[in-house]
């Protein structure tokens, strides 16, 4: 239960506070990329996530400039609010990579919500894994704003309710 509460708080902070006082915060930025999923939940949520929007300003909510919020083409963050034209099928991924200057023991974090046929699935990971109970994300998560890409290479996240593991593979790029 503690693990679920931490993930919910992180997700809510990112969804509510991903604002820098601009009217529109999610940017298409010619974003492209598909994330392949494998694991037992794919029978329900599918095997791919196609990224259509990105929010590059995560410092206020995650504590690092190396954070991005990825979402499907129908979901964006406008004025700090999640806006979607299809709440029945959507996703939001907050991916963060911390450095020594961020003053935290965490190196990598993913908080992800997938909505499939109106059913919500929440996932998370934390590197290094600690007593919070989150699974380790693995070494294949890279958030590189200079290269304008996020890489998921055998990145693992855990369903916060069932413990089912998803493996993520793919590259997301933007201009």
Describe the protein:
- Keywords: Signal.
- With 175 residues, the chain is mostly beta strands.
- The protein is globular.
- Strand 11 and strand 12 (165-173) form a beta hairpin.
- The chain contains three helices and twelve strands, in the order H-E-H-E-E-H-E-E-E-E-E-E-E-E-E.
- The protein has one domain.
- Strands 1, 2, 3, 4, 7, 8, 9, 10, 11 and 12 form a ten-stranded antiparallel sheet that branches.
| Number of beta strands | 12
Please compute the radius of gyration using only Cα atoms. 15 Å
Q: List the total number of helices.
A: 3
Mean pLDDT: 82
Which structural category fits the helices and strands?
mainly beta
Low confidence ranges: 1-25
What is the H-and-E element order? HEHEEHEEEEEEEEE
The figure for the number of domains is: 1
The major pleated sheet works out as:
10 strands, antiparallel
- The helix fraction, in percent, is 10-25%
Shape: globular
The end-to-end distance, rounded to whole angstroms, is: 39 Å
Proportion of β residues?
Answer: 35-45%
Helix and strand layout, with pairings?
Blueprint: H1 2-17, E1 34-38, H2 42-45, E2 48-50, E3 53-55, H3 59-62, E4 67-71, E5 75-78, E6 81-84, E7 90-97, E8 108-116, E9 119-127, E10 141-144, E11 149-159, E12 165-173
Antiparallel strand pairs: 1-2, 1-12, 3-4, 4-7, 5-6, 7-8, 8-9, 9-11, 10-11, 11-12
Short note summarizing the structure:
With 175 residues, the protein is mostly beta strands. Helix content is 14%, strand content 42%.
